[in-house]
Amino acid sequence: MFGDIARFLLNTLFTLFGAALLLRAWMQAVRMPPYNPVSNAIYQVTNWLVLPLRHVFHGKRGIDWASVVAALLASIVYVGLMVTIAGVDPFGLAPVLLIVAVLTLVKWALNLIIWLTILMALLSWLNPRSPAMPILYQLTAPFLDPLRRFVPQLGGIDLSPILLFVIVQILLMIVTRAAVSLTLFGI
């Protein structure tokens, strides 16, 4: 029972922190203004890890490499802790666990896309004039705009978030299956 609780808490903590790091990198990639409440919250949560890494990993071509490396480091620590809780020596499986850490990072990114898309869809129905809508639109537009070219609107209803959700869910299944097959247990 303690192992299940520990795995749940680690999964929740590291998934949220990894998503915050990836969101920080994504906000810079889409050139989101840094002076909004969402950006400020993400910066406050992640500065302790990202700012020291900026001395080594500089941003290039609009990519915040310090945030990406920080997310990868968080993923490596997460996978190592999960394997240790399962009773396996993480150093004996180091090369495999590095691949699983990258797959975990991809999983966090895909989950972030789902969360942002669901939040945007809910707010567009409940409160389309919310101050968060421009931020959510800017973050999800690179994924939804290409789909909007192919998916017609039915009666003024945008179905592209549903299609994006289905595509991302399929990708999540593939990534999860790959991670499970590499470790013989779920991460």
UniProtKB/TrEMBL annotation:
UniProt xrefs under PANTHER family: PROTEIN COFACTOR ASSEMBLY OF COMPLEX C SUBUNIT B CCB3, CHLOROPLASTIC-RELATED (PTHR33219:SF14), YLMG HOMOLOG PROTEIN 2, CHLOROPLASTIC (PTHR33219)
Protein family per UniProt: Belongs to the YggT family.
Organism in which the protein naturally occurs: Trinickia violacea
Recorded GO CC terms: membrane
Keyword Transmembrane: yes
Membrane-traversing stretches: 65-85, 97-126, 162-185
Record's protein name: YggT family protein
Keywords: Membrane, Transmembrane, Transmembrane helix
A Pfam family: CCB3_YggT
